């Protein structure tokens, strides 16, 4: 067993850490306040070759591994979680299903758009009445000649305003009891396709979260992604990879909160000494350091298993569940250590706490992760 990063992973970490500190962190507070999407940052990430990081070089990617992807998500999220989630969804939800299930022709058409950053990646699963019960999809795709005609709604979709296409699930056949769910690639400029960007969110204000409305959207049948009727399973498999991204985001936000709390505790004097000299504060900081270490190790383990092409569904859920819950706890404790200042935006920790909450919900709630783990251990 070897816990060291490889030379390539170290190089990617160094590059993205410097980039995040110099280019991403400084505007994070203002972007959160003004709800401004970090478009220029993604242009620069494309210039750095990060937008297609884990995808094959023949499609414009960098052919890197999943641990490298997790490192990039962690560093971006430490600086700005809105940037982190945009990147994580772009790769693990937008690009991954095309890479995993696309035909050669589909990969040639869509992956270069992802790898160059010309299109951000987005994926459409969730619907108003199909959240945790993701198989309850109501969006319908009816065959008409060589086309599918799609009608339905998707909600909480990351990145769609900046995507040239979205892979989404739709019912392609139903016998009234069981629905045949397929995945279909839909260009966002299709007639009848509307992207609505007006959610009022708790946090992650600089990320793009949208509703999709499809009214008689016509796409050729060749836009079917993977095997007909396998769409739900394909998307669950895609989410396994996405959950590593959410785990990495959680580690990044928690690390940022911990560093801010440690620095504040050392500098803040009450009762004649630094509050970091009080055991009550020391124990909080020690718990933070321990839990971040555990979460990061679990994220890397899930990523490593994926890279070894071994089953990783259980580990992806464990890392997502554990990291998101400790992130919520750590960001809340970081606010606590900052006292009244922590409640103020300028100290950043209240933003971390608001951003952390989404991680216990998106890409499968904590309750869904426990269902997945329970099933995996044979309950
Ligand atoms: N990979 C591949 N196949 C899988 C799988 C996986 N990880 N997990 C299950 N399957 C297969 C099963 O083997 C089963 O196959 P058979 O029918 O052949 O037996 C099939 O898929 C159905 O599995 P389940 O019976 O376990 O499915 P279920 O209906 O009970 O649901 C669930 C299980 C865990 C609750 C699942 O629905 C789930 O994960 N829900 C949460 C969905 C989610 O995370 N949504 C957030 C999406 S994020 C988003 O949309 C917005 C964005 O941009 C971020």
UniProtKB/TrEMBL annotation:
Spans traversing the lipid bilayer: none
Top-level lineage group: Bacteria
Reaction it catalyzes: a 2,3-saturated acyl-CoA + A = a 2,3-dehydroacyl-CoA + AH2
Organism: Perspicuibacillus lycopersici
RNA-binding among keywords: no
Family membership noted in the UniProt record: Belongs to the acyl-CoA dehydrogenase family.
Cofactor(s) annotated in UniProt: FAD
Molecular function GO labels: acyl-CoA dehydrogenase activity; flavin adenine dinucleotide binding
Domain Acyl-CoA dehydrogenase/oxidase N-terminal, residue spans: 6-118
Protein name as annotated: Acyl-CoA dehydrogenase family protein
Domain Acyl-CoA oxidase/dehydrogenase middle: 122-217
Keyword tags: FAD, Flavoprotein, Oxidoreductase
Pfam families xref list: Acyl-CoA_dh_1, Acyl-CoA_dh_M, Acyl-CoA_dh_N
Record-annotated Acyl-CoA dehydrogenase/oxidase C-terminal domain positions: 229-377
């Amino acid at each position: 067993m070897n816990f060291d990063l490889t030379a390539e992973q170290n190089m990617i970490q160094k590059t993205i850490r410097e980039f995040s500190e110099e280019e991403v962190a400084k505007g994070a507070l203002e972007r959160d306040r003004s709800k401004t999407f970090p478009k220029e940052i993604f242009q620069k990430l494309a210039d750095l070759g990060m937008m297609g990081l884990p995808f094959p070089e023949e499609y414009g990617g960098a052919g890197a591994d999943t641990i490298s992807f997790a490192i990039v998500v962690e560093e971006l999220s430490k600086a700005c979680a809105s940037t982190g989630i945009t990147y994580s969804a772009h790769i693990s939800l937008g690009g991954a299903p095309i890479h995993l299930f696309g035909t050669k022709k589909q990969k040639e058409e869509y992956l270069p758009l992802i790898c160059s950053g010309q299109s951000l990646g987005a994926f459409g699963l969730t619907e108003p009445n199909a959240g945790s019960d993701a198989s309850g999809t109501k969006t319908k795709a009816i065959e008409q000649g060589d086309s599918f005609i799609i009608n339905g709604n998707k909600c909480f979709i990351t990145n769609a305003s900046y995507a040239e296409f979205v892979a989404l699930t739709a019912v392609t056949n139903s016998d009234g009891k069981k629905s045949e769910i397929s995945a279909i690639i839909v260009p966002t400029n299709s007639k009848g396709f509307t992207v609505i960007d007006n959610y009022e969110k708790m946090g992650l204000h600089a990320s793009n979260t949208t509703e999709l409305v499809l009214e008689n959207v016509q796409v050729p049948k060749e836009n079917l992604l993977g095997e007909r009727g396998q769409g739900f399973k394909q998307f669950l498999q895609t989410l396994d990879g996405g959950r590593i991204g959410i785990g990495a985001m959680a580690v990044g936000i928690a690390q940022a909160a911990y560093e801010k709390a440690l620095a504040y505790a050392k500098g803040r004097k009450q009762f004649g000494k630094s509050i970091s000299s009080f055991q009550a504060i020391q124990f909080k900081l020690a718990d933070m350091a321990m839990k971040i270490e555990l979460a990061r190790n679990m994220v890397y383990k899930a990523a490593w298993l994926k890279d070894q092409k071994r089953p990783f569904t259980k580990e992806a859920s464990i890392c997502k569940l554990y990291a998101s819950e400790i992130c919520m706890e750590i960001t809340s404790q970081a606010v606590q250590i900052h006292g009244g200042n922590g409640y103020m935006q300028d100290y950043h920790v209240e933003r971390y706490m608001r951003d952390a909450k989404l991680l216990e919900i998106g890409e499968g709630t904590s309750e869904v992760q426990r269902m997945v783990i329970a099933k995996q251990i044979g309950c």
